[in-house]
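re the bet — no i am not wrong, look at it urself. input seq straight from the record:
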Amino acid sequence: MAQALTLRWVLQKSGIAGISCVCGEEFLDNEIRGVQIMDNPDTIKYHKQGDIVLTTGFLLKDNPIFRKTMIAELAARKCSGILFKTNRFFEQVPSDVLKDAVKYSVPILELPHTYAISEVNRMLMHEIFQQKETHSTETLRFFQEITAAFLTSDNYMDAFSLFARQFDNPVLYFSSNLDFEYIGSTPEQLKSLDPEQLTSENCFFTETQKEQIRAALQTSTYTRSSVTLAHIMSSSIIWAVLANNNCIGYLCVLEQNAISKDRIGDVEAVLPCISLALSKQLPAKPSHVNAESQFLTRLFHETYISKEEISNLCHMYHLQDNQQFACISVQLSKASRVKQSQIKAMLYEHLNFSEIHLRFLQTENTVDCLVIASPDADARDYLTRFHEILRDVCADNLGSDLLIGISNFHSHIHAIRLCYQEAQKSVFLGSHLPFRYPVFLYSDQQLFHTLHNLATKEDLLGIVDSALSALIAYDRANSTDLLQTLEALTFHKWNLKSSAAALYIHRNTICYRKEQIVQILHLDLDNVHQINYISLAIYAKKILEWYYDNCFTA
């Protein structure tokens, strides 16, 4: 694996002539993850763990308060060290700063005045980028090899040999009952193994240790456990890998020294993806976010996945059968300047209720959000709140840049795909309606969806003809648009103000048109059955327009 960038590299391999360590030689292996130039006291709050701080000391010259607190603050933020440029404001690092650096274990390198801070900053940032790119490439390669091995092998020996190569040490494999099965190693490692050690009692867990491991697995994130087992040749890590329907087993690394954090992180990132690979998921870059995206992609899109596979995947991601699920689909227009990250942040900010958890899947122009609610949550109340909150947010900030569809809540993990489909149908409806709304509840459009799913073309034509033929004929004879007005009234639940706004006409105008519609269709607005039938006919007309080439007349 790629070696991390450290202060020792800056001191010995960066090529900076005359650089020296004036404090903290024992911390030269501190990893450098970022670079910060300290030119303002306020910028210290942006320093992060692993940052190296570049400074000329200007801030220390006339700021005694900051001078007393700077080192302690950098230590608290776990910065990797300080690169102090001398002969600009100080001939050498001030003694009181050195004293604090020793006290708080902050290493300081002294940079000769012949080097510009900006020059060193560019050099370090370039090296960090190169290290990260190499690390990412190697991690991805390892992930792809592991995925391929699990997909093509029946006994997984090839995969465990890859783990052995990655750790640069042999690995022991245990069954799901924590009984020793066999060892995975590279050919070179196998030659150096002592058979007597492998057959000794040290290769087996005691019943007490098994119980400890099982208890740790129940509380571990994903399906991994990091139980230290000093009794197995100073081994340091046990990995649990959850497969399709069963637990493959546990890996324990045969290593005299602790595994480096870098290598643990790589395998930790890969493990959730391995579980998906075992379910025939295509490889992807290993990360928690991408693994979760694969998980949601399978639930939403793959129709051949069995109920048993759905249950196993959902349980792996800590979804329970008795929870309630809904889906919010957000579709951005191609010309929209709103980014998916903004949409996710908006949903997090405004839908962050105590009984709600959100998980996201995003593509080029969409963001799909799986909403997970506790079993006793009031689903109807949450749907109303979602609708009101998102409608207000869109009206205030986002305008017509997007459409949002909200599904019903369903009370079983096998209905998650149904949630996604309902949200997608709601977005589709919103994209085709002549009057633009930002947010659509599937429950509010149940009549439309029911008609679409159950009625034939002939059924729809019959409904439109019997309910609307008189109005259609009147519009054709008089070149009016009363049918459009009736659509607006229907979609706005006969609210005159909202309907007039949607049509961009005065309220008095829509009142006059409403009276004309009532007379032509002989409507009794107090008769709920008549109003419902008119609504049914309007929805039938829209389905005919969208799916049957605008053919809606008898």
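see?? The two ends are 72 Å apart (CA to CA). told u. also The longest strand covers residues 324-332. so pay up
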